[in-house]
Amino acid sequence: MQVSLQALKTFEAAARLGSFKQAAEELAITPTAVSHHINNLESRLNVDLFHRRPRKVSLTEVGVKLAAATYDGFRKIESALEDIQSSNQALRVSTTSSLAALVLIPSLGKLQAKYPEIKVEVLTGEAIDNQVFNLPIRLGNIAKVQSSDVVKTESFSLFGVKECLEQLDSANRVRVYTTEWKNRDLPKPPLEAWLELNGWDTSKIDIQSFDQELFGIQEALASNGLVFCSTTLTQQLVASKLLQAVSSQPVVSDLCYYVPNKDSYTDRKTGDFLSWFATLLA
Question: Which of 26, 28, 4 is nearest to 15 (CA)?
Answer without folding.
Answer: 26
